[in-house]
Amino acid sequence: MNPELAAELAEDAQLKTAIRELRKLRKDSEELNRAWSETWVARQKYERDYAFMVKQLREREDRIMDELRPYLAKIEELEKQVRKLDRKIRKRHSNKGRPEAV
Asked: Which residues of 87-98 are buried (b: 16+ CB within 10 A; e: fewer)?
């Protein structure tokens, strides 16, 4: 047999073996490949939607806080007034309980 022919036949055999192995590996990994692709697509969608949702929620939070600010200011003002009046009343009551100096 011609050495060139023998080398060519060996290469053909290697090629066929490699092609068979490649097909088998692709078939065996098909399910994992599909699962990976689906997961990748889901992650991309989630990242895109999540970023959008975070932006929406921040905007909503800002709008609500803008509406809430006057109420919070009024509440704070009234709390200060209540504390001041409470101190005044307690002081008056504590002074009534003491005997007056003559």
From this structure: eeeeeeeeeeee
